[in-house]
Amino acid sequence: MKILVVGSGKLANAILTSDLSFQSCEILKWESQLQSLNEKAIIVHAGSGRQLKECLDFCSKTKSVFIELSTGLETEKMESDFPLIICPNTSILVLKTLYMLKANGSHFENYEISITESHQSTKKTEAGTAYAFAHSLKFPPEQIISIRKSDIQEDQIGIPKEFSQTGLKILCKYAPSAYVVPVSINNSWKLFKYGFFPLGLGNRITFTVHKALSVKDLSFDEIMKQTEQAIVQGILTK
Question: Structural domain of residue 22, as residue ranges?
Answer without folding.
Answer: 2-86
